[in-house]
Amino acid sequence: MQFSGIHHVSAMTASAERNYQFYTEVLGMRLVKKSVNQDSHHMYHLFYADEIGRPGTDLTFFEMLGIGRTYRGNNSISLTGLRVASDEAIDYWIKRFDQFSVSHEGISEQLGRKVIFFEDPEGQRLMLVSDQNNTGVEAGIPWDKSPVPVEYGITGLGPVRLTVPELARTKDILTRVMNFRHVASYPAYQAGQPDVEVYQTGEGGSGAEIHVEVRTDLPRERPGRGSVHHVAFRVKDRTELEAWADRINQEKLPNSGIVDRYYFEAFYFREPNGILYELSTDEPGFLVDEPEETLGERLALPPFIEHKRAEIESILKPLNSGK
């Protein structure tokens, strides 16, 4: 069994309004679904992606009002990659980041790809990565109504970095249980630390890649605004999800069982270094309850919480993203 790549990454924000402004107006991603946390209906769950929210293009945020800052450290998902089509796009983004005063580290290279490390206004750690020399999992298609020209737009999720205190336990789960394969390593950015190890799944490439950074010098991360909650991997359908659930249960890893999220079905489990993984189906997707033309404009609620709409809308502060 192999995953098709990364499905989505879910992070935390203290302000849905500021988050929406940055990811749509600065990064030019499309808000494809404006919903709520299905386990806590008083908070927004915002989904930014390509033109129709294809699996593998989706960066999501839970709004947690009043949440404190992140104290960065170990046992964390410490970086989210975002793909662009070319080296020319990377050059475009440097100018755009300077125009909008986005904190960044300039252009560098990682595994033969041009990259830019940058942060959102809450300290979310992000990386743009060029697909100029990339092969593997197909990218998405940027929305043609974005403020960013289509040829430079964000096409999907790139490599996701995990930071852990020791490699062996995470490597065991990735390779033996989840069937990732080790493909490369590169020097750590911090002197005296082990190389960063690179693992891929499915067709490989930047859209199917996990980087594992070992840090022996850090305490455990204390999450807050600007931290990542979980990373999800793509499975085709319910049948494949059930097969993976059986496999995870055989390992006796703590898990959620299969959960219906309406836009996909999910299975959550935690690996021994504390990283929360989700396995998510590609089906049915975000067009199940909204037409493509108006994705993300109204508050979308799955049928099993639609009866609470009036209560939910009375709690949430309206976003300037439609009705």
TrEMBL record:
PANTHER family named in the record: RING-CLEAVING DIOXYGENASE MHQA-RELATED, RING-CLEAVING DIOXYGENASE MHQE-RELATED
Signal peptide (residue range): none
UniProt lineage: Bacteria, Bacillati, Bacillota, Bacilli, Bacillales
Annotated protein name in UniProt: VOC domain-containing protein
SUPFAM superfamilies documented for this protein: Glyoxalase/Bleomycin resistance protein/Dihydroxybiphenyl dioxygenase (SSF54593)
Ranges for domain VOC: 5-131, 156-282
Domain of life: Bacteria
